[in-house]
Amino acid sequence: MMIYIKNMVCNRCVIVVKQELEKLKMLPALVTMGEVELSNPASDKQLKSLNERLNELGFELLDDQKQKQIEKIKNLLIKKVQSGDIGEHFSISSFLVKQLNKDYSSISRLFSEVEGITIEHFFILQKIEKVKELLIYGEMNLNEITYQLDYSSAAHLSAQFKKVTGLSPREFKNIGGKRKPLDKV
After folding, report:
1. How many whole angstroms separate alpha carbon 94 and alpha carbon 126?
2. Which DSSP helix (H) or strand (E) runs through 2?
3. N or C: which end of the chain has fewer CB within 10 A?
């Protein structure tokens, strides 16, 4: 049995959801961002208890097919950005088509219809949050971040960063800027 959960955006989320499932005696065969595969079917009572507990923790059970698809898209893109391995000339459309085995125009249309922004804009927002993270940790300079996140130049990254945040990367770092939680991006 598959369960789909909204707002699972990191490995800690996976751990928390797995712990909640185990507390409710729902044996997960596999827990990944946004998805849980149960070893045995869950009762309505278990699902209701799980939903209540997840809501308290900032998660949400999904039952709508469109929402499930959107969460899958978001989680794939978040995982890609967080991996730090975007690669040169990364193509969102090719990546999603390969991962979802669906036509990109239908994926894109659905995402825009439900989320109110394009997949590309969502991806940019995720990359900017990753830039913020890397700037805050101070382990990489802007050129290294540019390369890691597949920007064409540091100037392009800076321009996009300023457009999204209203600050240059340097200004952000100097004021001790904060990141948004990934489920709020």
Report:
1. 18
2. strand 2-6
3. N
pLDDT at 21: 92
- Please tell me the pTM assigned to this model: 0.73
> In terms of domains, do 44 and 130 share one?
no
For residues 133 and 127, the answer to whether their CB atoms sit within 8 Å is no
- Distance CA(25)–CA(23), nearest Å, equals 5
Tell me the two tokens of residue 74.
Answer: 């978001």
Mean pLDDT calculated for residue range 164-184: 77
Q: Are 68 and 56 within one domain? A: no
CA-to-CA dists, residue 120 to 100, 108, 143, angstroms: 16, 9, 22
Same domain (yes/no): 6, 27 = yes
For 3-41, what is each residue's pLDDT tens digit?
A: 888 888 788 889 999 999 999 989 889 998 888 999 888
Q: Of 16, 43, 63, which residue constitutes the final position of a domain?
A: 63
Burial 64-86 (b: 16+ CB within 10 A, else e): eeeebbbbbbbbbbbbbbbeeeb
Tell me which residue range forms the domain holding 54. 2-63
- Quote the tokens at residue 129: 């949050």
- 66 SS3 class: helix
Tell me the pLDDT tens digit for each residue of 104-158.
Answer: 999 999 999 888 999 999 999 999 999 999 998 888 899 999 988 989 999 999 9
